[in-house]
Amino acid sequence: AVFFPVLTSLSCENVCDSFVVGGILVLYLCAPARAKYFAVQYTPNVRCKVPTTEAPQSDGLQRLLPISVLTISMNKVSEGVNDNKLSIAYYREKTEELGKAVLHLTAVEISLDVDADRDGVVEKNNPNKGSWKWGPSGHGAILLVNCDSESTYMKKVDSSTDKVTKVSDLLDMSRMVLRTNGPAELPQGYKLALQISQSDGESIRVFKKRKPEGAMKSLHKIFSMFVKEFPLVLGNDVLSQEVPYVGGSNEVDFFVEGLRFPDKDFGGLVTINLSLLEPSAQDFPETPIFTDKVVFRVAPWIMTPNTLKPVEVFVCSTSDNNKFLKEIKALVEGSGYKLNICKEYMNRGDRWMQVSCHHILIHGPDFGYVTRMASDEKVTSLDSFGNLEVSPPVTVNGRAYPLGRIIIGVAFPTTSQGRNMTKVVQDFLWAQKVQQPIALYSDWLVVGHVDEFMTFVPAPDRKGFRLLLASPDAGYKLFHRLQNEGYGKAKQFDGKKHEITLDELLSDKALRAENLYVQNCIDWNRDVLKRELGLDDEDIIDLPILFKILEDNRAAAYYPDMVNMIVLGNKLGIPKPFGPKVNGRCALEAEMCSLMVPLGLSCTFIDDFASYHKLLGEVHCGSNVRREPFKTKWWSLEL
Q1: Less Cβ around it within 10 Å: N or C end of the chain?
Q2: Are 89 and 39 in contact (CB under 8 A)?
Q3: Distances (CA, A) of 119 to 256, 401, 440, 618
């Protein structure tokens, strides 16, 4: 409860009129000159404690000492303004009264509340509402970034406007409740105000719910209806605003909207203060006599690994990928998942659903996106989403990563040359905290994406997954074995323009030299992944994939890159490699199946040769998968 001390009468000079701070009345500092004793009287609802080393005398007087203070509280809230009082009489001698001060008191209960224990209920005055703690026994309210679009026709991020245009938009916000209990009004001049800092004003908005002013009678007024019902209270341009005090026992609902994810300049925590302001004389600013606060943490941006259950698959339709669409549709729908095909008029000829166009095509209710703009850095293909992967959950040297670790591709660490993922993107990824990134060397590739040489698939044993790595060594080992078995005349790219026999391929010394270089690059990354993910060699499967140097001494897959696959539970959609046939079956497909089937995985080979591979991409580059979220709650991590 908050108590309003109102000094209503004085019968002597030199009695200070500002002697109550936080329910503590300092008697010694505000006593008249020559006062030696005091006596206190108060109404039944007032509780008053006088800390002293001396017992009260028989006449009720107490000696006035430097430590003489009154601690004031009340048994219940007031029914009216100034309905309780407390008086202090000061004495020079026991019979010589110097003066008397009378305080009229108003008790009001005020609490700003949030869901601090994360159970979906905004409980009253949770003791942890003003702080935030990670871990399974942690606490603190959570705030989402409102980066989806409730509109089906205006593809703008909801947070781009400072208005609530649909009630459904409130579901993306966190509820905050102002609870008050007391008389019908506050004492004259007192008021409540919500406040945020300038920096927090860039990260959140606060809207207030108020009762609608009657039913709207025309459809064209629906937009304004929502705006009026949920007016903006706090934001970047409004850092402090008075909020209503409603008499009796009442609640006022607010909705807090997150505007940005954690980043290099924003740790993710925001604070909202509720202050009771006391009027000041002579036009001085109002002063806070009571402040309650709540703390939110903005939820981080989280990636989902291949081991999580798929929900929906997205691909693009272009003028030349009908065969690809037909085959991937059979895989997706045959696996029991939803397929969303974005038509060419929507994708504007961009087929790379994983890499570049997914944020435009799949934006809608409960489906958002985030972008980062590089102001003074050159943007390269390494800044595409194909250069972002995430591992399944791992434990490394005793430290658990329950949400896995993000994997990015960059330039080689010891060189200042080459392409790199922009710093603004890297800073953003590291700022999320819950999926600590790992940087691999990917600039050796023409496109430069980590998904060109690695992926993860689920497994029934060990760590619950396998890391798949492209391996020229595994490819040459397979081809040499086939040659030794008498299949040297079998053709890679059989029936394609650039078909070549195994004998010719294996005699190409330049190609072999290029793949030795590629293997060295992959081996360097292999060591990093083993160390950073806590993997053993038994957790890694090498896939027979060759590469070829194309431009600027950078490589691309020689034949369709089988590691660049789509993972749908135990179903794999793999680029069809068009390898040499043995007994009528593609030897590369047979080898791939022999590696995946023991893990309980089935392989479907999809022809992406003309529509993706020749454009330096594959199945994974041309698709995107929405998956179920982690069951592990990100706030339960020990950070």
Answers
A1: C
A2: yes
A3: 17, 24, 39, 43
Residue 99 to residue 7: CA distance in whole angstroms:
14
DSSP letter assigned to residue 215? -
Report whether 82 contacts 6 (CB < 8 A). Answer: yes
> Using CB atoms within 10 A of its CB, is residue 520 exposed (0-12), middle (13-18) or buried (19+)?
exposed
Q: Tell me the pLDDT tens digit for each residue of 50-94.
A: 766 566 666 778 888 887 888 888 888 889 998 888 888 899 888
Element (H or E) spanning 528, and its range? helix 509-533
CA–CA separation, 518 and 329 (whole Å): 33
Using alpha carbons, select from 563, 561, 559 the residue that is nearest to residue 579.
Answer: 559
CA distance 473 to 179: 68
Q: Could you tell me the pTM of the whole model?
A: 0.88
217, 224 Cβ separation under 8 angstroms? no
Q: Which residues are catalytic?
A: 621
Separation of alpha carbons 622 and 605, rounded Å: 15
Distance CA 4, CA 284 (A): 19
Give the pair of three-digit tokens for residue 68.
């003489």
Find the radius of gyration of the CA atoms of the chain: 35
In angstroms, the CA 362 to CA 339 distance is 12
Q: Are 70 and 24 in contact (CB under 8 A)?
A: yes
Provide the token pair at 111.
């609490």
